[in-house]
Amino acid sequence: MSEITRETETAYTALGFYHKISQLRADTWNALKRDLGRIVRLNDAAEERQLAKSIDIKLTRLEIIEDYHAFPSKEDFGHLWALFGREDFVQLEKVVKRLVRTLISESYRRRHVDLSESDSDSEGLEALDALAQLRRGHPASNSSAQPYFEVLIVDAMSLQEEDVVREAFHNLRRPEDKFIYDTVTVRSFEDALIAILVNPNIQACMIRYEFPYKSKYNLSALRNYLEGISEKELESKTEAERSLLLGSMIGEIRPEIDQFLVTSGDVEVTASADIRHFKRIFYRETDYIEQHHTILRAIDDRYRTPFFDALREYSRKPTGVFHAMPISRGKSVTRSHWAGQMIDFYGINIFLAETSATSGGLDSLLQPYGPIKKAQEYAARAFGSRQSFFVTNGTSTANKIVVQALVKPRDIVLIDRDCHKSHHYGMVLAGAHVAYLDSYPLNDYSMYGAVPLREMKKTLLNLKRNGQLSKVKMLLLTNCTFDGVVYNVRRVMEECLAIKPDLVFLWDEAWFAFATFNPTYRPRTAMHAARTLRDRYRSEEYQAEYDAWKTEFDKLDPDDDATWLDNHLMPDPETVRVRAYATHSTHKTLTSLRQGSMIHIYDQDYRQKVESSFHEAYMTHTSTSPNYQIVASLDVGRMQAEMEGFELVHAQIEAALTLREQLYTTPLLKKYFQVLVNKDMIPLEYRQSGVDTFYDPVSGWNKMEEAWAHDEFVVDPSRITMAIGKSGIDGDTFKNEYLMNQFGIQINKTSRNTVLFMTNIGTTRGSIAYLLDVLIKLAKGFDRRWEESSRPERKIIEHKVKSLTEELPPLPDFSSFHNAFRPTPGSPEGDIRRAYFLSYDEENTEYLRFDNNELQKQMAAGRDVVSASFVIPYPPGFPVLVPGQVISEEILHFLQALDVKEIHGYRPELGLIVYTIEALERTTDCAD
Ligand SMILES: Cc1ncc(COP(=O)(O)O)c(C=O)c1O
Questions:
Q1: Residue 927: which of 838, 848, 822 has the closest Cα?
Q2: Mutational test site, ligand 1, from 392, 588, 634, max ligand atoms within 8 Å of CB
Q3: CB 585 near ligand 1, within 6 Å
Q4: How far is CA 871 from CA 443, 448, 911, 920, in A?
Q5: CA of 394 to the centre of ligand 1 (A)
Q6: pLDDT by residue (tens digit) across 750-773?
Q7: Number of CB atoms found within 10 A of residue 558's CB
Q8: pTM of the prediction?
Q9: Closest ligand 1 atom, CA of 398?
Q10: What is the layout of strands, in order, in the sheet containing 719-723?
């Protein structure tokens, strides 16, 4: 590993993000405005002094934050300080009010605002309009204006020089430019990193001449994130080396930012160094015009939406429709006597864009060559994959495509049993032999965590000892889980590859597409981990590390399981192949119409071994009439994520942290609701950092990075699981009767005693406030219910609370496949396809009831009772039985204790469908 990469990694993991900076910024400006409103009305000198001190503190704090933003500018701030110095609070209040309005309306994005001049009417109206829209829940859209961004300039120049540079770029603005931008100058290495963390408007960065390492501010709060960079080492680096290191760190934290290096002409150094993070190198003499156009071009590269553009273009062309699809161009509805309301509701554009044509500037999803191909290439850039593919039927289909592309009948797949049902069906279709992996249970909350690495290694070893390792093809895991448990993806791949060097990984990231756009989350995505590992295994440093490790490892007994399970394994760089696939429900966490999903690939063997089978699998599962609106929305969703994913995800996490803080600290809420934190959802053995909770009332959210950098599992704080057992209401009832029916709040996951609140990039502070308001109302209602209940009624409530907090049936592990479906006796994998299709012949199955002990009696008499179908209770929504699985006592206990209304694959009046003894005997004979 190169020096730069190593340093980048350490610093990067410690960097994280300043979690609540934008709320802090907005709140401090508002608080300042309030203070000024009070001080101008005060008559008491002592109080005035006190308040002036508080204003001073707020201005000082804001000056630090605003130093990293283009608006308000440094001159603007100088103006504020001058007014403060003159104690002209009346004028200061006016200016601050105007400034706050400008920030709310974002009018600084559209035109230059000079705070030393007086307010203009249009600005005031614009701000009022923006506020009104925000109140109505429709924030001002900037769609028709030139999009605005900021360029970060890193250069230790003087304030006067900064003015000159800023002015020079301002003067280049032309009305016909596609974008408008302003500059922000920072003067040190540290400041550059802080700027890109706190200012999401920064889209491009010019790293210019000599700059020191240290920031002029003593930013202790921000400094925490900069630990791990050795100051001495940095100070001793040459100008070029320091610039390159800064470029690579910015690339790790915000890879979407377009970076340019401006050198003083040290051509040799830059030519021989790793300059992949820079779009272009400018020499000192390059003129501003050249730089201006290069910046605009780079931004345009990300802003482009090839397929969406092609579709809009198509919709404007007059065409005669002589193919099937009467709704195309709205023909079947515009003149309809009955169906016109569709146009009223959707507007005409959606119909103008509906077509089945693949010509006329459009493209074919099944065989892309034009704008869809381009759009997919851009998606690969955005998500850090080698190849990306759009899928218009959700991740349910994406998963089946990947499995079919890679797995042939009788290949072994290791898979978490509580995965999404599309995987189980995918296994049936592919004819895979399945080795189910158990996640650790969270019995107190009736839900699962995730699969421990030890369990995966154990299963791989078991297969190895049974001579089956060569058949193992894939490890399939869900990251993050529905409940937000996140794997240490890199560690899992690293150690499993040490046992099976060509293992393919399918990471179901249905819920994790957004993670790519946040620096703390990104390393736990499949694409990032795959790229990091590939770079690592190709380096000389890794070879040396591996050799040293192998020498020690070879001294241990390979037949002892502990040798494999208790040591951190390292793959052989000579044989290892990095092969990772990820499936995203883009529609779940980013902008996309429903069913818009993507497959991302980082597979060193893709071109040689997979490309054609992938194509066939894609053809198998993709409609020949894919929905163009979904494809266009994926294209726009990608663009948005590349332009403002960092900002949106940051805001989402800020909103979630605010919700969590309130739930942790409000006594009334704590009485009935408990938000699960890291320690509740992850047993200590999987928390190497020992971090119990990310939040500390004194130091805030400082522990998050530490846990995310090291632990086997972490909880994604943007998904909030709340235990509600103390309310005496079960999850399902709470969801439907309380949240939905009474307050119109939708959620989609519950367990027996928990509900899950998911935030997303559309979650606003307003929606969080509403939820908190509702929860407080509910808690007050529970208080009232208790106060007004009679003694017997209270007994009923107590009984319910006890049942929901203490009487929780332990979650059953996967028992085993019956021998009739086990191709290799003693080995864990099962032929799920054979078990699935055996039930198609009615005479092979019978129903047994367990509510009348019929089934239990058969088991007691020694019969292996084997399920002939999937049995999936909702919640929790994973199969407690799969076809071919032996029914165990634990599973029956669990089913009996469940109080849910919906169990797929189970008909209470008939019982469970199982295989007859004869069918099993016949199958076993065939297998023999
Ligand atoms: C883990 C997981 N994978 C896949 C899917 C299916 O995704 P889609 O709804 O996009 O088909 C889901 C849906 O909830 C899921 O939770």
A1: 822
A2: 588
A3: yes
A4: 19, 17, 11, 19
A5: 7
A6: 888 999 999 999 999 899 999 999
A7: 9
A8: 0.93
A9: 11
A10: 674-675, 719-723, 754-758
